[in-house]
Structures are given as C-alpha cells and as structure tokens.
Design a protein that fits this description.
By secondary structure, the chain is α/β, with parallel strands linked by helices. It contains ten helices and six strands. Strand 5, helix 9 and strand 6 form a beta-alpha-beta unit. The chain is globular and about 55 Å long.
C-alpha cells in the first residue's frame, strides 16, 4: 500500500498524492479538531468530503471502479506532534473518518521543551507518547510512530502501536552508502 507523507495540511497536495495512487496519507501539524475535519474532508469524495475527481493514475492501481471504493479504502493519518495537538487530542481523535495518527517524535519533543529525538525520548515526551497511544486505543484509532531503529519500533509495537516506520529513505540510503565506503576503504 503506497503511503505518502504530505508536506502540510493543504487540499491541493492531499488530492494530488491520492490522484497519483497513494492509499494512505500522513498529514503533519494536525493541531485541532478543525484541522482533522479538513484532512478527512479533503481526502473523501462527496458527499463525505470535498475531494475533486481526477484519479488518472490511481485508477491504474485501484481499477476502473476506483471512485466506488476510494472513500473506504484511503487511510488518513493525522500527525500528532505539538503541545497544541496534545491539548486537543480527544477532539482530534474523535473526528469521524480519521483512521489513524502518527507521532513525529522530534517535533513533539521540541514542542514540549525537550531535545529532538527518535528513540530515546526525554521523560516528558515519553509520557506524552504513552498518553497519546492510550487515547488512540480508547477512540479506536490506529496508533503510528516514526522510529530511528528496529529496537525502538519493536518496543513501541509492544506498547500498542500498530504502524511503525524505521528510519527514512534518506537515512537508509546514507547508511548503505557508508557501509559500502567503509568496505572499500578497508
């Protein structure tokens, strides 16, 4: 399933990545219930939303009947990564049509006055993460989080996260390149 993290909560880019064939969108800086409503509306066709129709590439993945199942197929992740989002957490997670959330641990840490980190969160950020995953379970929303390495990802799965990412394409590419350079220098 193609998952795309869009750069911002903006209707044009959300619709563009869905039309290109994404089956899930991760949207940063969803800080309020209104933000979550916008995310859901902009990723659903009418009458559930306001998404425009233009899935030329998406129909290659989803078939000629893409329109008929798109609203039910697309997974919508709201990124919870600020103190403001934490204050509005229950309101955000209760928005109908929001399928999941995704914690950006560095932004969440910074917003809470901690240093940016992926895996080793300071106590304030770690407590916030545990609170967020507990509230998600209460609301029946899938919990997701970015991780720097496999050990942290496994630990977070044990805490109730059902969607974890490990690293990023840029970090994995850099690590592989460094391994090759070290082998050649040896």
């Amino acid at each position: 399933m193609p998952v795309v993290r869009v750069p911002w909560l903006e209707p044009g880019i959300l619709m563009k990545v869905l039309d290109a064939g994404a089956y899930a969108v991760i949207c940063p800086m969803v800080n309020t219930r209104e933000d979550a409503h916008k995310l859901v509306a902009w990723t659903n066709y009418a009458p559930r939303g306001t998404r425009s129709y233009g899935p030329v590439r998406a129909t290659l993945y989803g078939g000629a009947n893409y329109f008929e199942h798109a609203n039910a197929t697309i997974v919508r992740f709201a990124m919870i990564e600020t103190a403001q989002a934490l204050d509005n957490l229950d309101a955000i997670l209760s928005v109908e049509g929001l399928d999941a959330f995704y914690i950006g641990p560095s932004d969440l840490s910074i917003s809470l006055g901690c240093k940016p980190s992926f895996d080793e969160l300071e106590p304030t950020a770690a407590q916030a993460m545990e609170h967020i995953v507990a509230r998600a379970k209460h609301h029946g929303v899938v919990a997701g989080m970015h991780n720097g390495g496999p050990a942290a990802a496994r630990a977070r799965i044990a805490k109730g996260f059902r969607f974890v990412t490990v690293g990023s394409d840029a970090r994995l590419l850099a690590a592989g390149s460094q391994d090759i350079l070290q082998a050649m220098r040896a």
